[in-house]
Design goal:
This protein is an alpha/beta fold. It contains five helices and twelve strands.
Length: 223
């Protein structure tokens, strides 16, 4: 009996040493697996390196224990980002793939011209987007994105829009590039725009300058 107990104790002892050795090896491997490569794509040759350096400055450390929220918070500060995907590639690489926001309009904010992105954020104007519609008024970004969604659903080209006027009542006027102004209803934006377009596309109303669709199911023309 004493011999059996002694053998069991020896077996447990060697198992303890073996497990401890394995754990030490794994810990050493973890220490070696520092992040060595970070790749950022999607924002263009000028902006990718800037975001890359900002993320490197976070000193993320070991790939197994990185705080993903640190990366997310840094990416979210960039107004050009629409969507992004962060991938870990073991043992030591992080790939960040970004979908760049689409610029939808221009706006004057505090005396400076900005570009309004489909992500709802303002970016500095590089003056290469001067054909985008200009928004006048104290903009509610959610109202604008909703209007853009409505426009995409109807028979009107967004490129045909010259200016957008937003009023404190949360109502819109649309000025087309042919200088026709469409006055939309506050509560029935989609229906009023759809009705206005029906008149606009009719050959009987070629010389109109203004289409007032603010009253439900009614159109007032001004030529």
């Amino acid at each position: 009996m004493h011999q059996r107990k002694g053998k069991k104790i020896l077996i447990y002892f060697f198992l303890l040493i073996l497990v401890g050795s394995i754990n030490n090896i794994n810990l050493n491997n973890l220490k070696l697996r520092e992040i060595r490569n970070i790749n950022v794509t999607g924002l263009g040759d000028n902006v990718n390196p800037i975001l890359l350096q900002e993320i490197k400055d976070l000193n993320l450390g070991n790939i197994f224990f990185i705080n993903k929220n640190e990366i997310i918070n840094q990416i979210d500060t960039n107004s050009l980002v629409e969507k992004y995907f962060v991938f870990k590639k073991y043992p030591s690489t992080i790939d960040i793939k970004i979908d760049k926001t689409k610029f939808l309009a221009r706006i004057n904010d505090g005396g400076k011209i900005y570009l309004v992105g489909s992500n709802g954020k303002f970016s500095e104007n590089d003056f290469s987007n001067n054909q985008l519609p200009f928004i006048f008024g104290n903009l509610d970004i959610d109202e604008f994105l909703n209007l853009r969604k409505i426009i995409d659903q109807l028979d009107i080209s967004y490129d045909s829009i010259k200016n957008l006027y937003f009023f404190s009542s949360k109502r819109w006027d649309i000025e087309l590039r042919n200088n026709i102004i469409i006055k939309l209803s506050k509560n029935n934006t989609k229906d009023s725009l759809k009705l206005a377009l029906e008149f606009l596309h009719s050959n009987e109303f070629k010389d109109i300058k203004q289409i007032d669709a603010r009253i439900k199911n009614q159109i007032i023309l001004n030529d």
